[in-house]
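Journal club prep — side note

Before the paper discussion, L.F. wants everyone to see what a predicted structure for a comparable chain looks like in token form. Sequence:
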Amino acid sequence: MGNLLTLLRPARGTFVAPLHDTHIDSMVATLREAIGAERWHVWFEGATDFHVTDTGLNVGVANLFISDHLKTHFADHLADAARKTFGRPLPITYRVQPDLFRKRRQANLEGEVDAMEQLGQSVQARALHAAQHPRPQARPPSRCERPARPLFTLDNFIVGPCNHMAYAAAKSAIDAPGKAFHPLFIHAGCGLGKTHLLQAILNSLRPRQNLRVACVSAEQFTNEYLAGMRTRRLDAFRHRYRNLDVLAIDDVHFLARKAATQEEFLHTFNDLDTQGRLVVLASDSHPRDIDAIQDRLISRWVAGLVVRIVPPERDTRRRILEVKAAHMGHPLPGGVLDLLADRLHGSVRDLEGALTRLIAYAALLRTTVTEDLARQVVAETAATAPKRTGLPEIEQTVAAFFGVTPSDIRSRRKARPVTLARQVTMVLARQLTDLSLAEIARGLGNKNHTTVLAACRKWDRLVPGGAEIAWTDRTDHRSMSAGALLEHLKDRVRQ
């Protein structure tokens, strides 16, 4: 029978009921009731899939972060739900499921698109209503807790495919603060513009005389909360933050592992949300990828609009360099801009640093900026600046992921995790750096370049075929499709 799965070998004289995937719905209902709808929405919905096999219950997950979280926080609930549904304890295994992995990678972008479409239909109407029914002058305006930088405005924010969703969300927040979404959550790596957008929102809203605004870092919020605790002035602290019209908090990931501050921030957020006030948050990670944050906070953050900024692509890099150079009073020739945009990568801050060095060199040498000088500066920048995608960084990231050491990767050991880590390091080095096969081989312990070539060709076959990669991480058995594994590690290397 198609739905009848092979039974686990029963004890002598004991009848064991067959396992059916048709019972999964019942198990899911039991699990959801046990953990609550909120935690189910944050950690299971759209990110997990369940199947019973001849070896027990298999839990498909979207990525390893979710797998680790489920094992740590929900293992007992899963085991109990499975026992109640199937009438006996079942071994539980976890594996990254390729379709969930791909859906999770696309979910943020699709959510942003849907949200922006809704905003486009509603923001103008809300703004018109607000103009026709202005809020009465109830209190004088307050100054920003951290002075907004006049340099940061939407007008001088360079928009490209890497950040257009975040820009559109910021503009909508300015047009109708607190009316379209609760909250706006911007996440990006260092130097990609999330703080620029936070300050741009405040710079646009501060002139509105009836608005109280505050922009603080999560660290400052934490320090003020602790000071209020020590001095017994929590009432003043709460009054200041819970009576704002706009609250922007940068580096919100700083709240991780700070249970008391998270609890205080949750109540502050709930108060502002209930009043329809605008809350804007910035972090280096998606809310679900910030470790040690309360599920209640994550649930509220993802219920708003979560947008991501990624490193700029070539054309956006060129526009950034052109605008920054003009702002510095040193417009650059088109050929120089093309060369810099082609050869410089990374964050906006990285681009600004290279541009500053180039202009300084030209001034010291009393010469104009030429392509030859630009090549020299790019070469020196590459030689002196830490590379985010250099071979050492790739090696360290892969070693930590597979539970081995960089010296293991460079050795001749043939253990499965070591061999796998070595191959993946070679493949990622080939994809993420400009190193030749020979240079990668030398960097990994004077190996032959044909070894690197063989590893790359092998993974070129594994990825399109959706091959499953299995290994043991310390005492835990893990598996993942070849393509998902490479993409997961690329994301880690680029962080």
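L.F.'s comment for the group: Residues 98-132 form the longest helix (35 residues). Keep this in mind when we get to the figures.
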